[in-house]
Amino acid sequence: MKKSLCFAVPVVLGSFAYLVAQQPPPPRMHHVEQKGTLRPLPATELPSEPSQVTITIEGDDRVIVSNGIPNHKTGPFPNPGNPNRISVQRHEYRVPAKPKIADQISPMHGEFGVAVNGIPFDPGAGEFYDGEPGWQYEPLSGAIDLGIDVSHAHVQPTGKYHYHGLPTGLIDSIEVKAGSHSPIVGWAADGFPIYAVYGYSDPKNADSPIQKLVSSYQLKQGDRPGGNAPGGKYDGTFVRDYEYVKGSGDLDQCNGRFTITPEYPDGTYTYFMTEQWPVVPRNYRGTPSADFRHGPGSGGPGIGGPGFGDPMAGGPGGHGPGMGEHRGGPGRPGQMRPDVMHGGGMHPGGGPPRPGEIIPGFVMQSLNLTAQQEQQLRDLQATVDKELSNILTAEQQQRLQAPPPFGPGSGPGPGFGQRPGGGPSEDRRRSGRPQ
Fold first, then answer.
1. How far apart are CA 39 and CA 152, in angstroms?
2. Distance between first and last Cα of the chain
3. Whether the Cβ atoms of residue 311 and residue 24 lie closer than 8 Å to each other
4. Is there a single domain that holds both residue 338 and residue 320?
5. Which ranges are annotated Gly residues under compositional bias (predicted)?
6. Are residues 314 and 363 part of one domain?
7. Is there a domain that residue 375 lies in?
8. Which residue among 325, 343, 358 closes a domain?
9. How many angstroms separate the CA atoms of 165 and 236, rounded?
């Protein structure tokens, strides 16, 4: 009976470790109080691998699977503001194929959605003011150098390329242009479509003129509170510099509206990416899929707290270390320090846990553990490690530490490696490098 219980420990605790690992590491703190000049890096680099994405309908779900490689040129990565290199991923997102309006709007808790080329929209950033909680930096303000390219994207330490704003390379590839209603550029986590900038001036009339749709968010007037909060004028440095002003633009608090579109002639709720803040929406009209969640908070003003957004922007220039490095400095008295836990078998700081790890170091930092609890967790981790070594062969243990990457030939079925088709459809397969 005791042996059976020991065998069960790695499975249960390993599952728990996986779940808590989905939470972001501690935010990175700064003292900057005014926006800078965003200088996007030019798109000079061809991806090292072909872009691969499938979009299918499976039962009640729309399923987007991709290798995380964009279908357009990117800026150079690594670069001085972002030390990370784009690498093949294994993205799979499920959203409702027939989404419904929820009783109330809900805040973004990580990625807002995914583009038709399989690259996620992740508009927030894990950069905060070192003072009163809740002052999250807007990544496109230029206040913090995040090494963003001309498609308003950069790379996490995991190699994950993601969009913080208007994806210029994608927009060019699907021909979003003035005078024409935008094609679908992606899907939000709640299943509603995302369009970019251009829509009908009359949402009920497909014969009405095409216009740029304008956000209803405005900069607040006057100065920030100061003191332990940042001072200076509300200039867009922080997410909280903006407020929703109903009726001041074309779109609602979720940066969307109910409208007819070329793909939905009978009408649907849709989100629009805009040239003004928030650019990528930060709130949902429907019920978001948990596939897009990676942290608490909203990333948008007025609803819940600020979201962590980009969980591991990492790198030099004052915005955090790379994956696996200690984040947040030494722990408070009574906390389990990442370096201490590493000595006892735990994984340090930020980044995903090692296989079999009970609780990642960055989660430990928030638990305010007693010395007795620290020792109990060390003992428990030692038991888990021992049981894993007894269960797995040497070869299996090696595989566990270095799982095979997702790439050509390891995809989820047919369709990869074919050339792009036309506009978005219920069952589309796309592939290819930018020209």
1. 10
2. 63
3. yes
4. no
5. 296-323, 408-424
6. no
7. yes
8. 325
9. 14
- Boundary of a domain, candidates 273, 308, 325: 325
| Contact between 272 and 254 (Cβ < 8 Å) | no
**63 and 203 co-located in one domain:** yes
337 in the same domain as 306: no
Provide the strand spans (E) within 59-119: 61-66, 91-96, 106-107, 113-115
Whether 298 and 379 share a structural domain: no
Whole-angstrom Cα distance, residue 409 to residue 412? 9
Using DSSP's 3-state secondary structure scheme, residue 388 falls into helix
Cα dihedral sign, 132-138-142-146: positive
pTM for this entry = 0.69
Q: At what angle do helices 371-391 and 2-21 cross, to 10 degrees?
A: 110
Q: Tell me the residue length of the chain.
A: 435
Range of the domain at 364: 2-18+327-391
Looking at the chain, the number of H-run helices and the number of E-run strands are: 6, 20
Q: Please list the residues that pair with 145 across neighbouring strands.
A: none
Cα–chain center distance at 435: 27
Burial 139-150 (b: 16+ CB within 10 A, else e): bbbbbbbbbbbb
Helical ranges in 104-174 per DSSP H = 168-173
What would the pLDDT profile of 142-178 be if each residue is shown by its tens digit?
Answer: 999 999 999 999 999 999 999 999 999 999 999 999 9
Sign of the four-CA dihedral 304, 310, 314, 318: negative
Task: Tell me, yes or no, whether 48 and 88 share the same domain.
Answer: yes
Structure-token match 């040497």, residue found: 394
Indicate the number of domains in the chain: 2
Distance CA 7, CA 368 (A): 29
Answer yes or no: is 32 within a domain: no
Inside any domain, residue 148: yes
pLDDT at residue 88 greater than cutoff 70: yes
- Are 304 and 295 in contact by the 8 Å Cβ rule? The answer is no
HEC per residue, 168-225: HHHHHHCCCCCCCCCCCCEEECCCCEEEECEEECCCCCCCCCEEECCCCEEECCCECC
Give tens-digit pLDDT for 17-40: 544 444 455 678 999 999 999 999
Q: Are 246 and 351 found together in one domain?
A: no
Calculate the alpha carbon distances from 89 to 101, 133, 290, 292 in Å. Answer: 31, 33, 18, 15
Instruction: List, for residues 313-360, the tens digit of each pLDDT value.
Output: 433 333 333 333 222 333 333 333 232 233 333 333 334 456 677 776
Decide if 398 is inside a domain. Answer: no
What six digits make up the tokens of 212?
Answer: 């740029």
- Residue 394 pLDDT level (bands cut at 50, 70, 90): confident
